[in-house]
Amino acid sequence: MGNPLVLASGIWGTSGMLLARAAKSGAGAVTSKSCSLEAREGHKNPTIVLHEAYVLNAVGLSNPGANAEVEELKEAKKHCSKIGVPIIASVFARSAEEFAQVAQIVMEAKPDAIELNLSCPNVGAEGRMFACVGEDAAMAVGAVKNAVDVPVFAKLTPSVSDIVGIAKAVEGAGADGIVAINTMPGMLIDAKARMPILSNKEGGVSGAALKPIALRAVYQVSRAVEIPVIGTGGIMNGEDVVEMLMAGAAAVGVGSAISYHRNALGEIRDEIGVFMKENGYGKISELVLQE
Question: Which residues are catalytic?
Answer without folding.
Answer: 120
